[in-house]
Amino acid sequence: MKKGKVSEVEIACIRGMLSEGYTMNEIGEQLDRSVASVTKAWNNVKQDQEKLTKDHDPSLFINKTAGGQEGVNIMTEAASVRADEQKSQAAADMPLKHRRFIHQIRSNEK
Q1: Distance (Å, rounded) from C-alpha 69 to C-alpha 67?
Q2: Cα(10)–Cα(16) distance, rounded to whole angstroms?
Q3: How high is the mean pLDDT of the chain?
Q4: What is the mean predicted confidence (pLDDT) over 1-28?
Q5: Residue 26: which pLDDT band, with cuts at 50, 70 and 90?
Q6: In whole angstroms, what is the distance from residue 49 CA to residue 19 CA?
Q7: Which of 2, 3, 22, 51 is the most exposed place for a label (fewest CB within 10 A)?
Q8: Rounded to 10 degrees, what is the CA torsion of 103, 105, 108, 110?
Q9: Distance CA 29, CA 20 (A)
Q10: Mean pLDDT, range 72-78, rounded to an integer
Q11: Residue bearing the bigger pLDDT, 23 or 83
Q12: 32, 2 contact by CB (below 8 A)
């Protein structure tokens, strides 16, 4: 039985196998991992996804076309304003030693 951290490839396998209806026991056997390590890895993945969805405001981005096709991601005006605010905050928080290495091709100032 394998020991150590579950790899990204194994996590992808766990996702795929769960979507196909495999049990944790079957996944553990296929990956040569204990059921506890498979369950722990899956719980960590779910927690990470929950954090992302909690931080993501669905009203800021449009990712479906009128026909229901996905894959296009359009930033709304609210998201654009939010991004501009975050950029200015990030620039102000940047240490002086890093600021001298950033070159702006065009400035917004005229």
Answers
A1: 6
A2: 10
A3: 78
A4: 89
A5: very high
A6: 16
A7: 3
A8: 110
A9: 16
A10: 71
A11: 23
A12: yes
